[in-house]
Amino acid sequence: MLSNKQHPVHHILQHRPSSAKSAFVSATGVDLVHNGLLYIISGANYWQAMNLGMAEGPSGNRTRVIRDLEILAGYGVNMIRILAASEGSQLGTQPDRMYPELMPSPGEYNEKVFQGLDWFLAQLPKYNMTATVSLCNYWTWSGGAAQYVSWATNTDIPYPVQWDPLKQIFTGGDYNKYLEYTNRFYADDEIYKKTQGWYRNHIEVVINRVNTVTGIKYKNDPAIMAWELMNEPQVIETKNKKTGENQLFRWIDDTARYISSLDSHHLITTGAESKNGERWFSIMHRSSYITLASCHFWPLNWGYYNSTDPTDSSVDYSIGKLYEFIDLNSKWAQNLQLPNVLFEYGMMRDNWGEFSGIKAYSPRAPVSHRNKFYSAVVDCMKQFSNKNGRSFAGSAFWAYSGISRPPSIPTTNITWTGDPPHEPPGWNSVYDNDTDTLEIIKKLST
């Protein structure tokens, strides 16, 4: 672990607030600054933005987007985390994917999807919002890193366990096989030059794109707060720890350096969950081109929360783990003098009694545990805020469904709720009528 004095100050110098850059969110030490003021993030994940923003097609719904943004703004949300990446397959239609995709094949783009992203970004200033824009995804619901490996090797992706929308159960393959396959994106020297070349080309296309609505290049657009390398890049501990460390750091440093060479305005973050301890946090954030730290917290996925327990036992345990996690991530980010954001947190609706099993995904299911957990996140963010000398600049809940609702019958159609296609619709969704939950989120901005 590098001390404060040893850490390169590139991010502090490059993103120090100035009159010329005040419209852009910038970082100085552990502070985020916007328009000369401390910027505290109250965020929402809205991965659907690009497709919902399309003017036409099966996913386009601009009326919904405007209403969703109006509601979020009313509850103090000032940052939206979105995707600027979805990849198609050379092997035909794939299960549980976002369609239509932005990039059907390497270097080929669907202009209508891109214009959906243009339109969405153009709306944000109307609501005093910024965007964190992810340039890739570790998971297959958008194609992601595994699709780059599939392109490079012309092989089928070994999909992990995913939601079967017709049987309405989780089914599928081997999680470890999926990790091993997908990690080849940045760990297989035989294909790294090819996968990274395609990825860097995508980065250049996005960053240099001229928005067809505003006429502004993305790299010059203050509506964008940060570029994110990948949603949740994962690590596999190898027998030779140094090899795995070097491979991951090589990719992070190479990618962040490239983004910085194209764009001097925006923050750069990794998209990491930061769940594997201090060593891996340092590996993922020590590049001098990374200017914003990232972490996620998922109590159910990580085995802390028992969704079928009607008592407060496991939700209280999860809250204890949350405070421990945030405390550690705050210290690690302070050591590197980086601001930190909890870019994802979520919890499903109550899953017992009348709403046991699949009924827990219904918008009618109560949210007693979720609201208790969300309240703890807000309290935690305030306690560890950079206002109080700590590193956290805010958080973003997963995920906003707004006025949409899950289908009433089993279907293979993408529903565009807050839950990606590989998960049951309604699992972690927050709806426009979840007013108690939204009032809790509002406390982040007060």
UniProtKB/TrEMBL annotation:
InterPro entries: GH, Glyco_hydro_5, MAN-like. Residues 23-444 form the Glycoside hydrolase family domain. Its EC number is 3.2.1.78. Pfam families: GH5_mannosidase. Keywords: Glycosidase, Hydrolase. The keyword Hydrolase applies. It catalyses: Random hydrolysis of (1->4)-beta-D-mannosidic linkages in mannans, galactomannans and glucomannans. Gene3D superfamilies: Glycosidases. It is an enzyme of class 3 (hydrolase). Belongs to the glycosyl hydrolase 5 (cellulase A) family. This is mannan endo-1,4-beta-mannosidase. It comes from Coemansia umbellata.
